[in-house]
Amino acid sequence: MTDTAAAKTAVTPATHTTPPARFSHGVRKGNILQVAGQVGFGPAVAGRPPTPVGPGLREQTLQTLENVASVLEEGGASWEDAVMVRVYLTDTDHFAEFNAVYDEYFTDRVTVPAARTTVYVGLPAGLLVEIDALAVLD
Amino acid sequence: MTDTAAAKTAVTPATHTTPPARFSHGVRKGNILQVAGQVGFGPAVAGRPPTPVGPGLREQTLQTLENVASVLEEGGASWEDAVMVRVYLTDTDHFAEFNAVYDEYFTDRVTVPAARTTVYVGLPAGLLVEIDALAVLD
Amino acid sequence: MTDTAAAKTAVTPATHTTPPARFSHGVRKGNILQVAGQVGFGPAVAGRPPTPVGPGLREQTLQTLENVASVLEEGGASWEDAVMVRVYLTDTDHFAEFNAVYDEYFTDRVTVPAARTTVYVGLPAGLLVEIDALAVLD
Q: What segments bear the compositional bias annotation Low complexity (chains A, B, C) (predicted)?
């Protein structure tokens, strides 16, 4: 490998709690930046387990998007570089409210919105939303 | 950014209904083309909400694959460029029928089939299948 | 296409059973290697349908990770090149045990762990885990 731009690096925002297993919150290699599945945990507090910012969808969604944004930024990217956002909700009844919060969040944040897939899955108790993202840097 | 090939552009086939939130049906940046999750909606009709082409798995699957193909083509790619297809079904009992339709669709359409992951999730009422794809252009 | 490095090729480890539909276990195009969703099937035996290595999460997880590794290796990559691992489990109660096995497996296998998303979905009867991966080669 002669091009050091291709080196794989972990992306770990200071605000993030330690992952519960051997994975990275984000990984950059070359011009690809992959953000791991983020949830609505508030900023890490030493000695305390990760805790969602609130029981509601709105609060969790905004925090989750902020957590994705932190990884993008730590990796030298922004939402403008995101090509894909994967959204995992737990209840199809949450779709409309989620979209309203999503749109509000992205107003003034992106010129070209990322693609998105939304599906309904199981998540650990207390979590209503999980989001990951793929970015391609310039 | 000196290489204009790296510019991020939204890919929006004329046949597609407007996304229900701030996301793009497809996004191309550099040689990466990401297709958002497509479902079995028929071509957009002004003034009408998006509607699945039929209640059955076969019709929805074929339409969904066509909708993915439209985004690939609008982005300057084809199924030959697709490296990954993500399939979301709602019922494990649909696997065999889905595969039969999938194989029929791809006969004569690809030389090297994309990789694929199939999992079973919840989808909004009336939808039996959702598919997204990642393509790498030449 | 003048750059042969961009050619799309299927990646098919000899140990793998034939996919149940027109997809590839792995696809490489340019520096992108996508591994299809792998499950805990043991090595292919001619004339026998694919069978999980065991009913338990631990055995299936280790075999699934080995199956992903086989595709990475056949495609000229290793876990060090993986930027994303997608984990599909069937039960939130499996998270802790899965993570313990995951960590054990990756000790001494990677310097920079891949990003990861874990969600809970339905899988065909008998399967407890499915995993796919995206790698970026040097």
A: 1-21
Write phi, then psi, for B11 (nearest 5 degrees). -115, 115
- The answer to whether residue A19 sits within a structural domain is yes
- Nearest residue, CB atoms, C83 vs list A21, A27, A124: A27
Tell me the per-residue pLDDT of C79-108, one tens digit each, with 9 for 90 and over: 999 999 999 999 999 999 999 999 999 999
- Per CB-CB distance under 8 Å, the chain A contacts of B132 are 115, 117
A103, A112, A116 ranked by CB distance to B9: nearest? A112
Smallest CA–CA distance, residue A15 to chain B, in Å, is: 27
- Among all residues of chain B, which has the CA nearest to that of A103? B22
Contact residues, chain C to chain A, C-beta under 8 Å: 31, 80-81, 83-85, 91-92, 95, 99, 102-103, 106-107, 110, 112-121, 134, 136, 138
Q: d(Cα C107, Cα C31) in Å, to the nearest integer?
A: 26
A109 pLDDT exceeds 60?
A: yes
Distance CA A21, CA C75 (A): 26
Residue A1 lies in a domain: no
Task: Report the sign of the C-alpha dihedral through residues C38, C43, C45, C51, in that order.
Answer: negative
CATH number, domain with residue B122? 3.30.1330.40
pLDDT reading at A4 higher than 90: no
Task: Compute CA distances A116 → A84, A132, C100, whole Å.
Answer: 6, 10, 31
Interface contact flag, A132 C117, Cβ < 8 Å: yes
Q: Helix H segments across A1-138?
A: 57-74, 95-106
Q: How near does any CA of chain C get to the CA of A138, in Å?
A: 16
Q: What is the pLDDT averaged over residues B70-79? A: 98
According to the model, what pLDDT value does residue B17 have?
A: 87
Are A34 and C84 an interchain contact pair (Cβ–Cβ within 8 Å)? Answer: yes
What pLDDT was estimated at residue C5?
57
Structurally, chain A folds into a number of domains equal to: 1
| Nearest residue to C128 via CA among C103, C78, C92, C100 | C92
Does the beta-carbon distance from A99 to B20 stay under 8 Å? yes
Are A82 and A72 in contact by the 8 Å Cβ rule? The answer is yes
**Range of the structural domain that residue B126 is part of:** 4-136
Rounded to an integer, the average pLDDT of A22-40 is 98
* Cβ–Cβ below 8 Å for B117 and C37: yes
Is A90 a domain residue? yes
Interface confidence, given as ipTM, is 0.95
- pLDDT of A32 > 80? The answer is yes
